[in-house]
């Protein structure tokens, strides 16, 4: 029993060191943007392009050109939503996307072996479900952050309201 506990601790320390090293490599490869504001590019954009279709599912248009346009518009709205958050929260979201974009962390934490561009929707769905129900509060919080950003950004756009039967705010409230 003692050796298995020792092995468990060794594996835990090795995993923590690996994640810390991965974070350091990411910070060296992708230094924070000027002013530390959120920047949606490269790996973060690839993560969103893989996650948004899984989270929104049949809400996205089926026709390929319309689907691609809706996906890009959703990415832009997520970016705008993040830019409306306090700078410290923007940094946390940037770190989340950076972690998911980093190859070893993506494999370990999300179970996506190839890049996000090649991720199968079933892989992405399994990753999201595992984070949604994970025993670690940090991963559950990260899932909810992704969920709230994507769903909130999608339904903040008035063009999405008819699909859910929402007529919009009462005219009296707009005056």
From TrEMBL:
PROSITE patterns: TAT. InterPro entries: TAT_signal (IPR006311). This is Twin-arginine translocation signal domain-containing protein. It comes from Duganella guangzhouensis. The lineage of its organism: Bacteria, Pseudomonadati, Pseudomonadota, Betaproteobacteria, Burkholderiales.
């Amino acid at each position: 029993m003692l050796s298995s506990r020792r092995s468990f601790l060794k594996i835990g320390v090795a995993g923590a060191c690996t994640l810390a090293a991965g974070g350091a490599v990411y910070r060296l490869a992708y230094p924070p943007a000027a002013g530390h504001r959120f920047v949606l590019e490269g790996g973060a954009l690839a993560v969103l392009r893989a996650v948004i279709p899984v989270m929104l599912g049949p809400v996205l248009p089926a026709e390929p050109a319309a689907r691609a346009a809706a996906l890009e518009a959703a990415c832009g709205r997520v970016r705008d939503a993040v830019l409306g958050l306090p700078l410290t929260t923007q940094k946390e979201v940037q770190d989340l996307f950076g972690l998911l974009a980093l190859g070893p962390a993506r494999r370990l934490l999300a179970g996506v072996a190839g890049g996000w561009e090649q991720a199968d929707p079933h892989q992405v769905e399994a990753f999201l479900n595992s984070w949604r129900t994970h025993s670690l509060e940090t991963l559950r919080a990260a899932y909810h952050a992704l969920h709230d950003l994507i769903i909130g950004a999608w339904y903040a756009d008035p063009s999405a309201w008819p699909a859910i039967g929402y007529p919009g705010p009462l005219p009296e409230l707009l005056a």
